């Protein structure tokens, strides 16, 4: 089954692009984000309104591999949005990002149904001042590399436009 | 008439690349930047010296749609450099970036003359700490998406080298 | 002889990709980084372990042009990792980055042996607050542009995947 990693910066249109890949039928939206403040709550509401009634939404801030294992199916594609918040959640919970990523990668090597994962590219600015931010950036980069190596397709989105980085039949 | 959006990071060579698209004849340079300090004044002078005497320069910090409407012409191409400073100017002036962008996009859908617009990609680093910076980044991303959707060509420049993201005949 | 510039963000997989270009035989690794603290020492150790015993490592924090001039040879390819630390070293030493870059570019125009250089893309985030960081970003962008203009191949790496920006036979 197909697996697609959609990379992009903030406000690059990566989520809209990823949703477009699954348009035209029911799909399962796995939200990793949690509404801790008003700004975040508003973004989550915006995303949900945009997707419309064909989509079922579930929230999974931490156990992504287990969640996908449960829900992957040839009948209904899954969109995971996004890995960046997932990494942030894992770090806050004191969990091992590397181990969780390995579990996820294992599952994505030959997924039981179509899945699209959205992730941010955060490493193209200057080195951040504080160690925590550098650690986050390192995790994000390693997660992107690891999942890019197992997903069949990798797309980089800028200004809403896709650039195909990898395409395996 | 052709419309081209040139995206790139800081010191990516995007302005030089954009100027090269219009080389070989008279052109109109629409500068959105204003020399508030010495660093900025120096950059503006450098840009102007590089373009040479074939170019006419006008300054338009805010009313970009009206300015283009007045000056677009099949005889003389226009270069707008850059949308990033324009967004910053609009925000400082308390104007509605979304509304101004819609007006600009409307005009670029079928422009009365060739036009090239330069814009920065600023969303590929970490999430900034302060709300103002996040708002700016959101505006910049939305402007790039909106204009990329109406311009015929979109080029991403890195290290002075172009990557064609969109090319419509 | 071939010269390749490998660009990418932090944790983009650019070093691993660059090493892969030279795999399968002896190579010379020119490290510009110096282990000033534990974090850096660990990264240097990790890189060295990954490359294995086929590689000879030398350290050259500042005199990169002279070092390449001495070591370039058709028999043994060179990997320079990375230009970003080199720029940082030059700035700390109060040396002229532009002049040093010109010397390096001159050498890379027609190198006496195969060489791969790794550099970071740091200009795709927001404008940094402090002048020193802006200067560093400007230097990094100019070095990338200058070397991209003379190297035969330029590759942008994201999530471990290469995007060919320039390829001259």
Automatic annotation (TrEMBL), chains A, B, C:
The active site is at 47 (gmp-histidine intermediate). It comes from Magnetospirillum moscoviense. NCBIfam families: PRK05800.1. Belongs to the CobU/CobP family. Its EC number is 2.7.1.156, 2.7.7.62. Pathway: Cofactor biosynthesis; adenosylcobalamin biosynthesis; adenosylcobalamin from cob(II)yrinate a,c-diamide: step 5/7; Cofactor biosynthesis; adenosylcobalamin biosynthesis; adenosylcobalamin from cob(II)yrinate a,c-diamide: step 6/7. Catalyzes ATP-dependent phosphorylation of adenosylcobinamide and addition of GMP to adenosylcobinamide phosphate. GO terms for molecular function: adenosylcobinamide kinase activity; ATP binding; cobinamide phosphate guanylyltransferase activity; GTP binding. Pfam families: CobU. GO terms for biological process: cobalamin biosynthetic process. It catalyses: adenosylcob(III)inamide phosphate + GTP + H(+) = adenosylcob(III)inamide-GDP + diphosphate; adenosylcob(III)inamide + ATP = adenosylcob(III)inamide phosphate + ADP + H(+); adenosylcob(III)inamide + GTP = adenosylcob(III)inamide phosphate + GDP + H(+). This is Bifunctional adenosylcobalamin biosynthesis protein. GTP binds at residues 8-15, 31-33, 48-51, 59, 81.
């Amino acid at each position: 089954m197909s697996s697609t990693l959609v990379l992009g910066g903030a406000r690059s249109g990566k989520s809209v692009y990823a949703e477009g890949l699954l348009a035209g039928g029911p799909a399962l939206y796995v939200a990793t984000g949690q509404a801790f403040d008003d700004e975040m709550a508003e973004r989550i509401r915006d995303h949900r309104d945009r997707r419309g009634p064909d989509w079922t939404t579930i929230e999974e801030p931490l156990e992504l591999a287990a969640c996908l294992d449960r829900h992957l199916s040839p009948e209904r594609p899954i969109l995971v949005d996004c890995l960046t918040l997932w990494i942030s959640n894992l770090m806050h919970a004191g969990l091992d990002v590397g181990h969780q990523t390995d579990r996820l990668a294992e599952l994505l090597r030959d997924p039981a149904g179509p899945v699209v994962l959205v992730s941010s590219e955060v490493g193209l600015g200057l080195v951040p001042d504080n160690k925590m931010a550098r650690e986050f950036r390192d995790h994000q980069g390693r997660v992107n590399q690891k999942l890019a190596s197992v997903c069949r397709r990798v797309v980089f989105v800028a200004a809403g436009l896709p650039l195909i980085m990898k395409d395996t039949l």
